[in-house]
Automatic annotation (TrEMBL), chain A:
It comes from Halanaerobium congolense. It is found in: Cytoplasm. The keyword Transferase applies. This is Ascorbate-specific PTS system EIIA component. Gene3D superfamilies: Mannitol-specific EII, Chain A (3.40.930.10). The phosphoenolpyruvate-dependent sugar phosphotransferase system (sugar PTS), a major carbohydrate active transport system, catalyzes the phosphorylation of incoming sugar substrates concomitantly with their translocation across the cell membrane. The enzyme II UlaABC PTS system is involved in ascorbate transport. One of its GO terms (biological process) is phosphoenolpyruvate-dependent sugar phosphotransferase system. The keyword Cytoplasm applies. Keywords: Cytoplasm, Kinase, Phosphoprotein, Phosphotransferase system, Transferase, Transport. One of its GO terms (cellular component) is cytoplasm. InterPro entries: Ascorbate-PTS_EIIA_comp, PTrfase/Anion_transptr, PTS_EIIA_type-2_dom. Pfam families: PTS_EIIA_2. One of its GO terms (molecular function) is kinase activity.
TrEMBL record, chain B:
One of its GO terms (biological process) is phosphoenolpyruvate-dependent sugar phosphotransferase system. The lineage of its organism: Bacteria, Bacillati, Bacillota, Clostridia, Halanaerobiales. Keywords: Transferase. PROSITE patterns: PTS_EIIB_TYPE_2 (PS51099). Residues 1-89 form the PTS EIIB type-2 domain. GO terms for molecular function: protein-N(PI)-phosphohistidine-sugar phosphotransferase activity. It comes from the Bacteria. The keyword Transferase applies. This is PTS system IIB component (L-Asc family). Pfam families: PTS_IIB.
């Protein structure tokens, strides 16, 4: 479940990032500091964008960052940053990015429920803009909780 | 209607896309299945349609029609594209 994984330690608001690589580094840092990934996972997330293009910007203003289980995931995890200033990823439809999620999964199945709930939240009208404006992790978590409770 | 949702690794964006396509199919009473795949494993898979982001869609070579989605969290865009695809079947 998303709220079991996304805890206050995994959220940072109003983060400064100069470019997309810093967005990946900052989002990944929250997982690294929590001991949930190895450092190489952050590089793998960057490499995946270099290899596959900026389609990680899945919707307006939102990046969903990840690499593969074998790239150094210690446990299933999810982090979120909101950006002080929006950042261009080079995605022609959905730039600039205002919020970024990073996740790690130990296999190809265990994250399915989490991503399913996350997509419910992100499909909600103006969810990305609302989250981007929020001033604290606590506020974001109760907002997500409210959306999921309505389902 | 059998759909493949495809992205580079078959873990992230394709999964979001699958969830959102399934939701629309359920709401509209369209029967079928949506399966997540990564780019390297779609060859030989049977499908009516392949849904993917524009960047990934351009790289796909498959007999099924490829439908590009600009914004995977936009209910309206996905609904229009799912319904149009269903009508063409």
């Amino acid at each position: 479940m998303i709220l079991d994984l996304l805890q206050k330690k995994n959220i940072a608001v109003n983060v400064e990032a100069a470019d997309w690589k810093e967005v990946v580094a900052e989002t990944g840092k929250l997982l690294l500091e929590a001991g949930q990934i190895e450092k190489r996972y952050i590089e793998a997330m960057k490499q995946s964008i270099i290899d596959n293009g900026p389609y990680v910007v899945i919707g307006k203003g939102i990046a969903l960052l990840h690499a593969r289980p074998e790239d150094g995931v210690k446990e299933n995890c999810l982090s979120l940053i909101t950006l002080a200033e929006p950042v261009e990823f080079g995605n022609k439809n959905n730039d600039p990015v205002k919020i970024a999620f990073a996740f790690g999964t130990v296999d190809n199945e265990k994250h399915v429920k989490t991503i399913s709930e996350l997509s419910v939240v992100l499909m909600e009208e103006s969810a990305v803009d609302n989250i981007a404006e929020m001033g604290s992790a606590g506020e974001i978590l109760s907002y997500i909780e409210d959306i999921l409770a309505q389902q | 209607m059998r759909v493949l949702a495809v992205c580079g690794m078959g873990l992230g964006s394709s999964l979001v896309l699958k969830m959102n396509i399934e939701k629309i199919m359920e709401q509209e009473g369209i029967e079928g299945s949506v399966e997540v795949k990564d780019l390297s494993s779609i060859m030989g898979e049977q499908a009516d349609y392949i849904f993917a982001s524009e960047e990934i869609g351009e790289k796909i070579e498959h007999p099924a029609e490829v439908i590009s989605v600009k914004n995977m969290t936009d209910k309206k865009e996905i609904k229009e594209k799912v319904l149009a695809a269903y009508k063409k079947l």
